[in-house]
Design brief:
With about 325 residues, the chain is mainly β. The protein has a single domain, classed as Neuraminidase. It contains one helix and 28 strands. The strands form eight sheets. It has a four-stranded antiparallel beta sheet with strand order 3-28-27-26, with no helix packed on it. The chain is globular, with a radius of gyration of 17 Å.
Length: about 325
């Protein structure tokens, strides 16, 4: 799959993707309003800058939002993570801030918590912070990675991370790097490649359910949702019309929630394969979160600089 270049406009990165020019043309001002959902909320004008991922920290009852704040490829050390209360109060706009002297954070994307550690993908490394204080702990390298994206924690404390396998060339065009992969990081730090190119293309969101089943979605136009078998075999469980899939959440009832830039929507895939639109009219729904205390889906609107909450209805 060949993608057109990123266009850097102001502090936003707008994806220019083959076949979805109407989506790429959206700006924060022109992004369509989300469809009204009873009980939901929209948090905007609160200091978000290219929000890529939302993670619910159940221990502190707080939403953590990773903000790229510019070019997702650039080591500019100005990415940050916001703390937001579930009712929309900004608790700390730049709780973890790459602009401070003691923190390095360039373009934060996926996040996961294991015990008291917060793990954050940052281009080609995983950064580790204290979950409670936000203090930096260390950096974990994935050798050869070019564009680490999402993170998920398994029941045993293992981490799963995707490398979308894209990079910028000297002309500023984004194309394949050939490093597409899904990795497993054992609790002892051992890194194993579960699946890699050419078997998978542009893996984006990754999720592990309570049984340890590993799901991954592709940012390709085909809209593939895969289950990764223990031996690395990919089993297609669904195709979402519109494609360009970003985030994925596994619910306790066996359903999957998947965000699609192509469809400008979040779709619920039931255990019997039915697909139900949960939210639409969102130009750039990125890496989803789930508030398990309130049964709320958390949707970062990448280009719209806002976060939406939507009830997960039975």
């Amino acid at each position: 799959m060949r993608m057109k270049p990123f266009l850097i406009a102001s502090a936003l990165t707008v994806l220019l993707i083959v076949g979805v020019a109407p989506v790429a043309a959206q700006t924060p001002e022109s992004s369509p309003a989300p469809s009204p959902v009873a009980g939901g909320a929209v948090f905007a004008d609160i200091g978000l800058q290219t929000p890529e991922s939302v993670l619910y920290d159940q221990v502190d009852d707080v939403y953590l939002i990773s903000n790229i704040n510019g070019n997702p490829f650039e080591t500019d050390d100005n990415g940050f993570i916001m703390q937001l209360s579930p009712d929309g109060e900004v608790l700390a706009e730049r709780w973890i801030d790459g602009a401070t002297a003691d923190v390095e954070l360039n373009a934060p994307k996926g996040m996961a918590v294991v015990d008291d550690n917060l793990y954050v993908t940052d281009i080609d490394v995983i950064r580790v912070f204290d979950r409670a204080s936000g203090a930096p702990i260390g950096t974990f390298e994935i050798p050869g990675a070019t564009f680490l994206n999402d993170l998920a924690a398994g029941p045993d404390g293992s981490l799963y991370v995707t490398d979308m396998g894209v990079q910028l060339d000297d002309a500023g065009e984004m194309g394949p790097s050939g490093t597409d992969a899904v990795y497993r990081i054992e609790p002892d730090g051992t890194v194993t490649s579960l699946v890699q190119a050419p078997d998978i293309t542009t893996p984006n969101g990754v999720e592990v359910n309570t049984d340890g089943d590993i799901y991954v979605v592709s940012f390709a136009e085909s809209g593939d949702v895969f289950l990764i078998q223990p031996d690395g075999e990919l089993v297609e469980v669904a195709q979402v019309a519109g494609g360009l899939l970003d985030g994925i959440i596994a619910l306790d009832d066996g359903s999957l929630l998947v965000s699609s830039w192509g469809a400008m929507a979040v779709v619920r895939i039931t255990p019997d394969g039915e697909q139900i639109t949960v939210a639409d009219g969102i130009a750039s729904p990125a890496d989803l979160g789930y508030d398990s205390s309130r049964d709320l889906l958390l949707i970062p609107d990448f280009m719209g600089n806002r976060v939406l909450t939507v009830p997960v209805l039975d």
